[in-house]
Amino acid sequence: DMDSNMYPSVPNMKARDENGSDRPYVLCEYTPGIQEHWDYIWKSQRMIGAFYWDWCWQGLYKFGDNSGRIYLSGDFGEQPTAVGAGRDGLVSPDRKPFPVLATIRDCYRPFFVTRSGKSPVLTVKNRFDFTDMNRFNVEWEAVRAGRVVASGNLGNASLAPGETAEFNLGQGAEGCEINIRFSLKEDTLWAPAGHVVALYQAL
């Protein structure tokens, strides 16, 4: 059993999360404020996620119209109609990504990386519940004035689910911008080896 509701504001979601229940809590639907919702969800001890509504804009090609235009609600002259309905997806009806898809991808990152100033030391938190970081390639590059001046990887570094650790990239990364990428080492049922699950840029 679990708690759930749809389209709460962040304060409303927080209040429900803190109502004393010990059941898992998930948003069955939400749309606005993606970043704000996930900033809280990742900190919660009870929340298990949220389902964005929805995947794609809902539109159709019109029979006899060969222009390639996609018709949305209200475009057929139907009355009554809810103009704007079905226009809240992450991709277009022909599956072209909208910028919001990149936002939600970043919110779902299973690793969280922070850095103090221009230090070469990165603090990494493994947000997975059951998967060690050693299942992923963790590659980094240090950039100064637009040029890569150092690069490397964390090898088979282990970081257990829910744990946080510091990784020193060495003096070559000090004072630089750091790009870091987490990708699958092996094929899985849902993605091939090399699939990137998280990107970070530590400025």
Defining traits:
203 residues; mainly beta; four-stranded antiparallel beta sheet; three-stranded parallel beta sheet; 3 helices; 33% strand
Explain how this protein is built.
The N and C termini lie far apart (43 Å). With 203 residues, the protein is mostly beta strands. Strands 9-8-11-12 form a four-stranded antiparallel sheet, with no helix packed on it. The protein has a three-stranded parallel sheet with strand order 1-2-3, covered by helices on one side. Strand 4 (60-61) and strand 5 form a beta hairpin. It is globular, with a radius of gyration of 21 Å. It is built from three helices and twelve strands; from the N terminus they run βαβαβββαβββββββ. It has helices at 10-17, 34-41, 99-107; strands at residues 3-6, 25-30, 47-52, 60-61, 70-71, 111-115, 121-126, 136-144, 147-153, 164-168, 177-184, 196-202. The longest helix is centred in the middle third of the chain and has 9 residues, at 99-107. The mean pLDDT is 93.
- State the secondary-structure class: mainly beta
Sheet with the most strands, sense and barrel status = 4 strands, antiparallel
Question: β content, as a range?
Answer: 25-35%
Number of helices, counting only DSSP H or I runs of 4 residues or more:
3
Give the number of DSSP strands.
Answer: 12
Topology:
Layout: E1 3-6, H1 10-17, E2 25-30, H2 34-41, E3 47-52, E4 60-61, E5 70-71, H3 99-107, E6 111-115, E7 121-126, E8 136-144, E9 147-153, E10 164-168, E11 177-184, E12 196-202
Outline of the structure:
The protein has helices at about 10-15, 35-40, 100-105; strands at about 5, 25-30, 45-50, 60, 70, 110-115, 120-125, 135-145, 145-155, 165-170, 175-185, 195-200. It is mainly beta and about 200 residues long.
